Structures are given as C-alpha cells and as structure tokens.
C-alpha cells in the first residue's frame, strides 16, 4: 500500500483529535448563543450587496430585505406627494410588483407581469382614468427592450376585453 502525503496528513489530523465522552448534563445545559458569530480572517465582515463593513451591533440584523423595505417606504412617501395620474399609476404598479417580487425577478418576466397587472387592475385603471399612464409605461418598456410593440397591442386588447366584460357583467346586475 502506497501512502500519499495527503492521506498521511489526514491520518495525523485524525490521530491528533482527542475525543472525550460527552455527558448527559453537558447536552442538557443551555448554550450561550444559538448561532455562532462568524468572523473572517481579518475579523471584519461586509454586506454582500453594498460591500460596507458590518458593525458589531449589526451582526444579528444583517437582513438586506430590511434595506429593500426602507427603500420602498421612502419611494412610497415620495410618490404620495405626487398627485398626477402617472404618480397614481406608479403607486398601483409598485404595489403590484412588491406583492409579486419573488414571481417577477428578471426582464423576461416583464411581459407576463404586465399582463397579470392589467388582469388584476384593469377596473381600477379605468375608474381612475389611468389608461394613458398605462400606455406610457408600456412604451417605456419597449424603449428599454423588455418587449416588442406587438406585445403592447396584445396587452391593450386584453385591457379592453376585461373592461368590456366587467361593464357587461355590471350592467346585467342592474337590469
């Protein structure tokens, strides 16, 4: 049998480990910390997205979702001051995207996001007279390359069909 250097090192490592039996009382004692605090070689940790050093007081609060919620709240407050149709439309759009942030995560999902948005919010868009804001939003998506002009026609046709069917259903209720 030929022993390589790596296998002999592993054997040496195994031989140097002292195994002591664990008592029942040691297992039943509560641990000081449920989660060990990891440290890098330099002793500093950094946020994965921003690259900013994590302070010792922030170690348990390293949830980047909190930052996203703060950004959303700041933008929501900013949009609340806007009383135009585009501001109203963007409130509805941002609320929809926030609720579905795990469903629509890439550019290729924007077409299905727009279709679902129109399906859910067509009545609200019509009632608040936001059709032009919807069209502007869809044209913006063409300008940045999310989808083609034919897709806008398809979405607007879906919007008209949904509103016509909702109006017919409402008129049948009153007849």
TrEMBL record:
The UniProt record lists the keyword Transcription regulation: yes
Similarity comment: family membership: Belongs to the VEFS (VRN2-EMF2-FIS2-SU(Z)12) family.
CDD domains, A to Z: VEFS-box_EMF2-like
Name the record gives this protein: VEFS-box containing protein
Species whose genome carries this gene: Sarcoptes scabiei
Pfam families per the UniProt record, alphabetical: VEFS-Box
Source organism superkingdom: Eukaryota
Single GO MF descriptor: zinc ion binding
Keywords annotated in UniProt: Metal-binding, Transcription, Transcription regulation, Zinc, Zinc-finger
UniProt xrefs under InterPro entries: Polycomb_protein_VEFS-Box (IPR019135)
Residues of the Polycomb protein VEFS-Box domain: 44-146
Keyword Zinc: yes
